[in-house]
From TrEMBL, chains A, B:
Keywords, alphabetical: Heme, Iron, Metal-binding, Signal
Signal peptide: 1-28
Name of the protein described by the UniProt record: Cytochrome D1 domain-containing protein
SUPFAM superfamilies tied to this protein: C-terminal (heme d1) domain of cytochrome cd1-nitrite reductase, Cytochrome c
Length: 542, 542
């Protein structure tokens, strides 16, 4: 049988993947590609499609794209779908890919999906590097800045993380990270465990599975202190309450890895492959959200395709205890309630918010919401009628759903829908702050630029939208992801220069949290997406 | 690509396997087989070789048999090895297979191993049958026999379990089970949980993954009350302390399944695929020994290839808590110490006995022993010098190793080798009884008939072999596996009619436990291997 490399080596994306050969998977009677074209299509698929449809193409957010279904559609229909997208949530790609490329991808998905290689702990260890030895770590900040109001900002397509001084609004560093960092998390305050210098160290996870450690006490230019790689494809990361461990989850291979937070040395790898709630075996059981439970010595690991929330006790890695909490598919993104006991996570394909009780390590409740809930960092606030509530945006509909989340003092409202707010367009991120009267929602999923470039703000009291803010009017740019500053007086919104992704033409727009008026624009950023305020994230201001 | 069925359907072995096609896996430049011959070789391999070498041929007890290694050896050398075996533990197969069959298997192992299909919970549910409805279960024994001294006896190649009355020595039933039942377990006394009618219900697990439920209170002919199938290839089973659940482990797929002990309805399936102690991903991570911890509401599941002992809390299946205790490869067979707290299991390829503390769910110790330890049901007794001890036979050497197993009152001797007894040949099973002065060891692994047909008995006081008992002299028969009767006055040894496996020419030889003299022979059994005395197994007399 002819062997073909799983060629992600093309952009040096996947160290080690080139080593293992795979077979050229032509389905009998189906179309085929040359090895070179197959490799190109494979890479494009991995970078642009696999996140929604899966490497093995079994489907998740996107539909199943196995040959048995694709052959029925045929080349022409597939090219059309990929070029122009569909009503049901499939993006258009005619702005990113050439006609020729789209034709290759359309052929590629009519062939059997190649299975990418595994990654062993040894491989990860070989990819671990120290840029600054532990003994040279400073004992106090080497700059005079208020680092607790720093924002760590993803510059997606530049493969960088920018550090922005929240007081002065200066971009003080652009740190080289892996390809398309997806999430960045730092050490946080914890009820039982105590990390040193909370908020000082930040850890990035890239789509390529690279993990970078950032030390905010270092001088700009020196902040990148260590690196490793724990998968070929990954999305989320977290730091243990004691600051000793970092955990990151793989989309491929389907596993999570616990690393030494000092050196990033990988210590433990645990497979998440297993059975879904229907009892079917899932090889591509990807790790979506990962958090540290604020009150327990445990990580919370959401396994997307199996609908299982894993509560992983990190107090003894050699005798690792995991509770697998059955919920619903496909688990994606979540956030804790204000007490830190309950984790609220979207099971998007089930149109549910799943609530896990981390005190008893069990399912607390499942709340029916609208199409494809997606809270991003999430939002908790107090509603006059329902008491403490949580809220989410939806990928599938312009709507914010709000539910009670205080079972102790408001048992009648707890885990029930309190109210809904209609927005102009489907969104990805919701955000608020305890000092703010407002809740902010973006509309990233809406196809029309006017809506996609606007965020909407509603009043916690009246539950009415009070302002629609057009964040940018530039073609090819989108508005997304809100983050408050340290004292809750400002809201920062990203302008993602999607079309001009190679240049620093993205920006962050800063709004006054009270007047909702624009204060300033921070320029010189390349494709800024997520951003993380040190103080708010370390103190669970969600 | 041509599709070929994973054809275990030939003997109806694997219901459901025929449904999924696999590709005919010819290695470039390597030899190949017709589809028909491939299917035949595949079946022979699955039945006779996979247990030691693995379905995916990565190696375990036997070596790696992947094409990259096999192609180097070539057809002629491979045929020789398969025909005549090797010194290092590879059996000869010239007595079981024809020259032509051996040639096909030799070619087969030079081709890529086909991956058998998965099995979903739904498939298992469809294979679940009630022969006697729950409402018709008797409320007391329907026969006047002393059922607590029954022996449940495996008739391996007949696909039956015989029920032998230990008082009268009558074979009162031959129950139809799956193909080659491997282990049978019943409800047991438990420190925390309490099952009804302890010792009444017995559960068989076959090599084909079939599970049968036997009710010893029924009249002969009516004892088989339910059936299911939980894998295509399996070895061990256990019943929860409260008698509510049955758990069985798969060799393929690599998972364990928890069933309702009343109906055998499969409730939960958990994959055991994961990383070994070196951090390499193992797809074929087979479940070997499964037990219920006598003092905890937990199952103990040994995952052979990953070297992980899983302690599975069965008190909440929806929020299933598992502690994965890292130990050594390849975990195989084990037994509890007399306190019921410590599980002692062979990690055979590491030449270690692994000890797990089920109270704290952690690794207690690893004891270095000789080549390939294999205790079977195991043996615990009191040594004058070392205090409470455990012992094991070895597959790789004629030796019984004995270690201290009482860390509370004999901490200096605990988990250290106390002494060794040389036997004439490598064996598989060791056994004793608290009322007996002797320890019995078989020598099943020795190639010479005189030794293989003899068991050896040593004195607990003198530590010396006091008797070598030739159990049979018939050609083609082997002696194996000892079991005491209810009051400890008799020892039963199986005579396995290997060569004449289709006929009831096997027997059980009963010895006086004190005088070591033969008392009687129970005839009319087809290939008896393991046997399980109701009282001793229910009361942890190991
Ligand atoms: C698992 C996961 C998390 C962690 C959730 C949590 O911590 O609760 C997450 C969080 C995030 C966060 C962190 C939010 C926060 O404030 O904590 C951001 C900024 C983000 C920006 C994007 N995400 Fe994300 N994201 C995925 C996965 C995830 N994203 C996908 O699988 C998906 C749908 C498709 C893909 O191929 O990646 C996807 C698309 C996107 C985007 O298109 C965004 C907008 C830009 C990008 O980087 O591609 N995701
Ligand atoms: C996992 C496992 C157990 C459970 C151990 C425990 O409970 O602690 C077990 C127990 C057993 C027990 C239960 C012992 C007891 O008293 O509890 C018996 C009788 C037994 C007869 C055999 N076993 Fe067994 N056995 C395997 C697996 C296992 N056997 C194999 O993988 C192997 C090596 C090769 C194979 O392909 O099956 C194998 C060969 C054999 C035999 O050749 C024996 C002698 C006859 C047969 O059935 O094939 N095994
Ligand atoms: C943001 C998520 C997302 C991404 C990224 C994505 N898709 Fe989709 N895709 C979807 C969704 C959701 C659907 C279902 C749309 C519908 O039902 O209208 C879909 C549908 C499809 C379909 C039609 C399937 C059918 O049976 O109707 C094809 C083909 C397809 N996608 C191919 C691709 C390819 C190729 C890529 C990458 C170049 C890609 N998709 C990227 C979400 C995505
Ligand atoms: C009881 C366990 C067991 C069974 C069953 C078994 N083998 Fe083996 N096999 C071994 C062991 C152990 C070795 C290593 C022997 C040695 O090193 O001398 C081995 C070695 C081999 C080798 C030589 C590998 C090498 O690289 O040297 C081949 C080929 C082989 N086995 C094929 C088979 C086939 C085919 C079957 C079934 C028809 C089979 N085995 C059944 C245990 C087993």
């Amino acid at each position: 049988m002819k062997k073909l490399k799983f060629g992600l080596s093309a952009i040096g994306l996947a160290v080690g993947m080139a080593a293992t050969g795979i077979s050229l998977p032509v389905v009998a009677g189906g179309p085929s590609l040359s090895e070179k074209d197959f490799e190109e299509a494979n890479l494009m698929y991995f970078q642009r499609c696999a996140g929604c449809h899966g490497v093995l193409r079994k489907g998740a957010t996107g539909k199943n794209l196995e040959p048995k279904n694709m052959l029925k559609k045929g080349q022409a229909r597939l090219e059309k779908i990929i070029s122009y997208g569909t009503e049901g949530g499939m993006n258009n790609f005619d702005d990113i890919f050439t006609k020729d490329q789209i034709s290759k991808i359309a052929t590629y998905i009519q062939m059997d999906p190649p299975v990418p290689p595994e990654m062993s702990l040894d491989q990860m260890k070989k990819l671990t590097k120290q840029f600054v030895p532990l003994k040279d770590y400073p004992t106090k900040p080497l700059h005079g800045r208020n680092w607790e109001n720093f924002f760590v900002v993803i510059e997606r397509d530049a493969g960088k993380a920018a550090i922005v001084d929240g007081d002065t609004k200066e971009v003080i560093d652009h740190i080289d990270t892996g390809y398309a960092v997806h999430v960045i998390k730092g050490t946080e305050h914890h009820k039982k465990d105590h990390a040193k210098d909370v908020g000082r160290f930040w850890y990035t996870i890239g789509r390529d599975g690279k993990v970078n450690k950032i030390d905010l006490w270092q001088k700009p230019g020196k902040m990148l202190v260590a690196e490793t790689q724990m998968a070929y494809d990954a999305r989320d990361i977290a730091v243990s309450g004691d600051g000793k461990y970092v955990i990151a989850g793989g989309y491929w291979p389907a596993h999570f890895v616990i690393m030494d937070a000092e050196t990033l040395e990988p210590l433990k790898v645990v497979s998440t492959r297993g059975y879904n709630t229907k009892g079917e075996f899932i090889n591509e059981a990807r790790v979506a959200a990962i958090y540290t439970a604020p009150n327990e010595s445990a990580f919370i690991v959401a396994v997307k395709e199996t609908g299982k929330m894993l509560q992983v006790d990190y107090s003894d890695l050699d005798n690792l205890t995991i509770t697998a909490i059955e919920s619903a598919e496909f688990l994606h993104d979540g956030f804790f309630d204000p007490s830190g006991r309950y984790f609220q996570i979207a099971a998007n394909a089930s149109n549910k918010m799943v609530v896990v009780d981390t005190k008893d390590a069990k399912l607390e409740q499942m709340i029916d919401v609208d199409k494809l809930p997606h809270p991003g960092p999430g939002a908790n606030w107090i509603d006059e009628e329902c008491g403490p509530v949580g809220g989410t945006t939806h990928l599938g509909v312009g709507l914010v759903s709000v539910w009670g989340n205080d079972p102790i003092n408001h048992p009648d409202q707890a885990w029930k829908l309190c109210y809904e707010v209609e927005t102009d367009g489907a969104g990805v991120f919701i955000r608020t702050h305890e000092k703010s009267d407002y809740v902010w929602a973006d509309q990233l999923k809406h196809p029309e630029p006017e809506v996609q470039q606007s965020v909407q703000v509603f009043d916690k009291k009246t539950r009415e939208i009070v302002k629609t803010i057009r964040v940018t009017e530039d073609e090819g740019k989108a508005a997304l992801h809100m983050e408050f500053n340290q004292d809750g007086t400002e809201v920062w919104v990203s302008v993602w220069n999607r079309a001009d992704a190679k240049n620093p033409t993205g920006e962050i727009v800063v709004y006054d949290a009270k007047t909702l008026k624009e204060k300033t624009r921070i320029k010189g950023l390349t494709t800024p997406t997520g951003k993380f305020n040190v103080f708010n994230r370390a103190n669970h201001k969600t």
